[in-house]
Amino acid sequence: MKRIVINGANGYVASNFIKRLLALGYQVVALVRAGDSETSEQKMHNSLARLTNNAPEKYENLQVCDYSLLDPQFGLSPAELSDIFGGDIDYFHFAASLKYDEKSREEIFTTNIDGLKNSLDAFQKYTGDDSRFFFISTVYSCGKTSAVFEERFYDNEDISAFRNYYEQSKRFAENEVRKRIENDGLKAHVLRLSQVVGEHRTGVVKTDYGIFDFAKRIQNLAVRYPNCTIRLNVNPNATQNLIPIDLVVSYLMRMVEMEEVPLIINLAAERSTTNEHIINKLNEMLPVNLKPIRKLEQSEMSAIERVISVGMSFTGAYIDTNLSFDTTCKQQVMTSNGLEINEQSVSDMLEYFIESMDVPNKVKHHSGA
User: Fold this and answer.
1) What pLDDT sits at residue 172?
2) What kind of architecture, by CATH, is found in domain 3-196+242-267?
3) CA–CA dist 220, 210 (Å, integer)
4) I need a labelling partner for 72 at 20 to 30 A (CA). Which of 120, 155, 243, 272 fits?
5) Where are the domains of the chain?
6) What is the pLDDT of residue 349?
């Protein structure tokens, strides 16, 4: 079996991917930046342990390397790089800053573009001719377009074309990959993920990103102010494009298995989930009455509503979206195998997430919202 090298390896999607690779006997090299109180190996093993509720696991085929994404050649010696990248490998670049605001612009662009360039440099210098580079991007590099977002490259644009600097940085990063393909003949592929959620099969959620961050904020307020009414500046008919982690991992495994992979794949859900369904489910589960109201002005909000509005500074950019994504190449790779998101699986995930939060008296014991 080929060797798989992954950076940003302790993240949610990457660690789930690594868990599957190891279960199937692949040799995996995980590039992880050591923390202040954890070694890179401890960080990686802790990430894997969270996926198995800390059940003991042996990872004989896992090699963990401490690296620095932003240092030239990752701050590693030529001998170390030759050991990691030598031969023909598949390399997955997951590492990214998920920040989005103008204040963090320099950090976002340094991590998401300069970090990618370091990855490309090391890959091109040390890997074999048949190695492949997979860049993990986002379907939200589409920006504010109202057209169908196709599985092709789009030119760089000013920040006014995007909701935030994260989206813009990912568009710029995609075009860095594009440049290396066109100028250097790089064997590379761009995999654009939509919002990754929990497992479709089980409803298990091990992330607090996106809709789960929103659910956590609502749950905390519902405990502090039970049975309160909270108006939300949300379009109930707008949608969230959610894709289950078990389906994402299946697609990533397919990338490894296939000899010929499309250049760009939009790994987006075929069906989106309405904001109304998410809000109704939270109303059902929690002692709270959420009321979505379009164009609710800040001056009209109560103190609690302003707290929620501030906390939604990122998700708020996506509360009035009905984005459309071309998934022709995705469908050529594989079908969803029954793992496509639906209202029931979203409900199961929200139930699991709320129940897993260790706060007393958090779930309603009455019917009706």
Assistant:
1) 98
2) 3-Layer(aba) Sandwich (3.40)
3) 16
4) 155
5) 3-196+242-267, 199-240+272-322+342-356
6) 98
